[in-house]
Amino acid sequence: MSQVSQVSRDGGWPMERLVHKEVSGGVATITLDSPRNRNALSVRLLGDLEDRLNWALAEEGVRVIVLTGTGPVFCAGADLKEQRVEPGTAHEAPVTASFPEIMSMIWNSPKPVICRLNGTARAGGLGLVAACDFAIAPDSASFAFTEVRLGVVPAMISVTVLRRLDPRAAAEYLMTGETFDAARAQEIGLLTRAVPAGELDATVAHYADMLLRGGPEALALTKQLVRQVPALTVEEGMRQMAELSAQRFTSAEGQEGIAAFMEKRPPAWVPSPEKTAGPE
């Protein structure tokens, strides 16, 4: 993988990027690449991740985002070396600098985001997993919300995690810090699928391919309604969804989809597979 450098904050020697990007056929892969500290959420990594996500969201040719990592660990959570402060001094924890915004970017992304876990995840790393629309992991991976065992709280990540997990399971694992396996993670809603390691890439590619077939506007709206409709009354839900259905059938995207189906051709929004850019 090529290494793209950025100028260090003090104007010294260029620093290697800790997050890389690559595009192929409408799918942008964003890779955490700091294996020396198990892809921990350092200030540098968070800055690079925010930059890469902004790029993927703005890039017109990107239809699906895949978030993954290098090494045996997807993300170990906060970089604890950066969290140490002198007792009695006022100090803002570095991990809070951009992590909430990053999780919000992923959660609210109009483009589907697939988390391809390359391995184990802990603590803050699970906030990223939960923020993504889909999460695929090898069945050998393990997970834990370790915050309470350090005397801290899984505060920021609870915003995404508690929207995924079964409530009883959330209490069990957030309060005990116990490690659990990928099968259990799928059972309680943290993962979409847990698969043998040899099937990981094929499973991620399958989901990405399915998503590429959906209209971009339709996918963004469907992502919203999956979350919002359950909170509506039946009557209000029926009223709002009837309006949305009518709007979409008569929209340019809806009409293109219907025409493509009738003419037995791919719709205009399906990317050409040859559109590929190398890693950065």
TrEMBL record:
Pfam families: ECH_1. Gene3D superfamilies: 2-enoyl-CoA Hydratase, Chain A, domain 1, Lyase 2-enoyl-coa Hydratase, Chain A, domain 2. Belongs to the enoyl-CoA hydratase/isomerase family. GO terms for molecular function: catalytic activity. SUPFAM superfamilies: ClpP/crotonase. The lineage of its organism: Bacteria, Bacillati, Actinomycetota, Actinomycetes, Streptosporangiales. The gene is paaG_1. CDD domains: crotonase-like. InterPro entries: ClpP/crotonase-like_dom_sf, Enoyl-CoA_hydra/iso, Enoyl-CoA_hydra_C, Enoyl-CoA_Hydratase/Isomerase. It comes from Planobispora rosea. This is Enoyl-CoA hydratase.
